[in-house]
Amino acid sequence: MSARARHICYFCDYGALSLYSLGCAFAYGAYAMPDHWVSGVLHRYFVPVAAFNSFVCTGLSCYSRFPELEHPRLSKVLRTAAFVYPFLYDNIPLFYRGWGVHVCAWNEAVAGYCYHLLFALLTGFLFASHLPERLAPGRFDYIGHSHQLFHICAVLGTHFQLEAVLSDVCSRRAWLRGHLPAPGLPGTFGTAGLALLGNAAIIGAFTAALPRAPGSSVGPPGIPTEAGCRRDQQ
């Protein structure tokens, strides 16, 4: 795979993660919002702000690939911040339901959200720390690498997240119907469609910028590049 194609694949991956964060906001806004927040200011703007956050996430994470060689620490910080920010925003209702001032009743959904947050924190820790391979380089290249553990924790966290949302759907749907208008197409498919188009435009812009970006013809450290291979052949 060429260095350019590799960057583009990562751009698409970042866009997909951004849209996933928007999907979480749809679910939480519909079923997970604390009772006394329903129809409040945060609830009304929860999904639109999450859509904007998806643009920030995609833009910042795509940009983080450009200074990767010259400033790897900066690149890592930018990429981590790009995903931590929408995660924290999306989970505001969950933080409040689990540990807020007026703690909501403990039920199956709240327990599921807590497990989800636990595995999400483990996912972030593994992404940032590169453990355990940092402690024993070469011993975890095939089994036990942090990236493998990262995905396992992410899948487990998503499982508990889905189970918790389904629990809220079953237990709160009747109450929510009496306090909220039924969601319409503009608020769901319209928002999702605009977010998809916006993220695609951001990915397209960064893809177009690749040939002009400093170091765009080179890949991450340790990966042979097209330009490097041509120089070696000459």
TrEMBL record:
Q: Which UniProt keywords apply?
A: Membrane, Metal-binding, Transmembrane, Transmembrane helix, Zinc
Q: Which residues form the signal peptide?
A: none
Q: Which Pfam families match?
A: HlyIII
Localisation: Membrane
Which InterPro entries does the UniProt record give? AdipoR/HlyIII-related (IPR004254)
Select a single GO molecular function from the record's annotations and give it.
Answer: metal ion binding
Q: Give the way it sits in the membrane.
A: Multi-pass membrane protein
What residues does Zn(2+) bind to?
Answer: 147, 151
The UniProt entry's GO CC annotations, sorted and at most eight, read: membrane
What main location does UniProt list?
A: membrane
Q: Region Disordered: start and end of each range?
A: 214-234
Q: Which residues cross the membrane?
A: 12-33, 45-66, 78-98, 110-128
UniProt family annotation? Belongs to the ADIPOR family.
Full protein name = Progestin and adipoQ receptor family member 6
Instruction: Supply the source organism for this entry.
Output: Strix occidentalis caurina (northern spotted owl)
Question: Which lineage ranks, top first, belong to the organism behind this chain?
Answer: Eukaryota, Metazoa, Chordata, Craniata, Vertebrata
